[in-house]
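Predict structure. Input: Cytochrome oxidase subunit III, 228 residues.
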Amino acid sequence: MSQVSTASGHAPAGHGAHEAHGAHATSMHVDSRKLGVWAFIGSEVMFFAALITVYLIYKPRNLANGGPDPKHVLGIGVTSVLAAILLASSVTMVLALAASRRGDRRQFTIWMLSTAVLGLCFLGGQAFEFTELIAGEGITMSTSMFGETFFILTGFHGTHVAIGVIWLLATFFKVRAYPNSSENVMDIELAGLYWHFVDLVWVGIFTIIYLMPDFAPAAEMLFFHFHL
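Output follows.
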């Protein structure tokens, strides 16, 4: 069986990675790069939470001004498929990391590339949805508050997916170019952390915007109270 990552000719992938990352470890024995990725994810979670809140706050104002009703213009069919695609990509990402830890280069290649391809499929589906809204419904960022907040929120997430695909492919080609590098397992794990974050964000967006279009949290009640 070919090896994805080894510290030497006799060391398994996972063992070599832990030794090599001793220089990166913090006093808590956590890789500093992993802490950095977690910190970045934490900041992005707050940013997405803010975007979702803005969308919910302005939804009643959009309807009051005669803007499009999300229940009537958003198709749950396509977005359900997109949600399934991203959830499947999380599974393939887990399998890619597991293969790298076993040193199974062939399985790593299959699952890592599958994850990237699923990400590209999601982006293609999102582009289709945007085209339908713009060409079919005449909704753009300038036509209504719904269009502005919806495209900013989902477009920002799509940008994160695109960044994730680039990260996955860059990691894949690095591992293929340097199969004996002890950094490989950690590199794959970091890419996986980001990818799972992107997937979970979409679950939140899909649930609140598509599955629960009549969702009326405190954000909407604040709108009516303060007449924003």
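The chain has one domain: 31-226.
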